[in-house]
Structures are given as structure tokens and as C-alpha cells.
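Quality-control log, excerpt.
Job 1 of 2 completed; input and output follow.
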Amino acid sequence: MLSILEAAFVRDGAVVADARRLAFRAVRALAGFAGGRSLYVPKGEQLETALRDREIWERHNGTNVSELAKAYHLTEVQIYSILARQRKMIRARLQPGLFGD
């Protein structure tokens, strides 16, 4: 995993020494989060969609839905749907249900 991350950082333009340092940091972060447990990592289109949706959420400023729709070649309705799903996921992560659901 370390060498895969390091190579990805180098491909993105990082200096080899920095890429190695970042790769170690990323592996430690993943181990701290999911160490000893199974971790599902989607791939292909499912991963790209999840990353795109998160990026849309992070770029959304409350007034740029039409700009996001154009940038991602989606409709405004699709952008609103993505934002609603992202909001629901973040709320569930930060505010668990009262009855363990």
C-alpha cells in the first residue's frame, strides 16, 4: 500500500522524498481509522462517482448550483440530489440516531 500511494503522489508531481513522507502519513491515517478491521474501498465508476459527489459538496457555496451543473455536465436537479445525499451522510456521521439506527 505504501508504494502504491507513493507512486500516486509522484505521478501527481510530488518530489520523491515528499511523496514517501505523504504515503507514510496516509497509511498511518488509514491504519488509525480501520486498523484490524475490514475496509471496503470501491473501485471504478463507483469510486469516481463517490469522489465526484464529495468534490461537488466541498465546492458548493450555496449559490453556485448552476455553475457546478455546468462544470460536472449534470443537471441542476442532479446537483441538488447529490447535495441532499451528501448532507444526509454527513449528518448521520456527526449526529447518530437516538435509537442506534
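Job 2 of 2 completed; input and output follow.
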Amino acid sequence: MAITKKKAKLALPPASSNIDDKAMVEMINKGGSTVTKAEPAQEEDKLKSFTLRIYESELAKIREAISKMPKRGRQSMQEFMLEAILDRIEKQS
């Protein structure tokens, strides 16, 4: 039969009577400043969805162009189309 030592029980530290109740109440009543949230400088750009009508032949061309990209860095169809639209806008500006 193995003999084991009893584990010491954890207990709260002894209450100290050094704390002055008046000083504690004064500190609580003094309070502190509240945290204020910074106002955003600009309004957030909200995401908007819409339906795009496209011919199947054009969609097939887009899928083919995406499939030729390397698999590791391949874009989704949405990313591909958005990039194409933004490139077109830059060229016209």
C-alpha cells in the first residue's frame, strides 16, 4: 500500500482590516471617466448584391479563362468579374 501526502486545500487569503471603509467609499464615489467610442470618419461601404444577366457562351468564356489560371491563386468568378469591371472603369477614366 502506497503512502501519499494529503494535498493542501486552497483557501482565500485572510481578510485584512487595514482597509479604511471611508477611504474605499470615497474612491468608489469619486468614479472615473467613461470610455467613449470614436466616431467613424466615413460611412462604411455597404455590400450590395444584384442580378447579372449574361449569355451562356460568355459565361463559358469566363469559366475557361478562370480554369487556365494556376489552381493555387485562382480567383472566384465573382472576383474575376469584379476585377474586369474595375479595370474597364480605370481605362475609361
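Post-run check on job 2. Helices lie at 21-30, 56-67, 77-92.
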